[in-house]
Amino acid sequence: MRLIYRLTDSDFLRGAPEFINTVSRFASRGVLIDNHNNVAMLYMSRMDLYKLPGGGIEKGETKEEAFLREIREETGFSAEIIGNLGYIEEHKNKNNFFQYSYCFVAKAIKKNKDINLSDDEMKSGMVVEWMAIERALEKMNDSIQSCDDYSSKFMILRDQIVLQEAVKLFFLGVK
Question: Any idea what the CATH number is for the domain that residue 135 is in?
Answer without folding.
Answer: 3.90.79.10
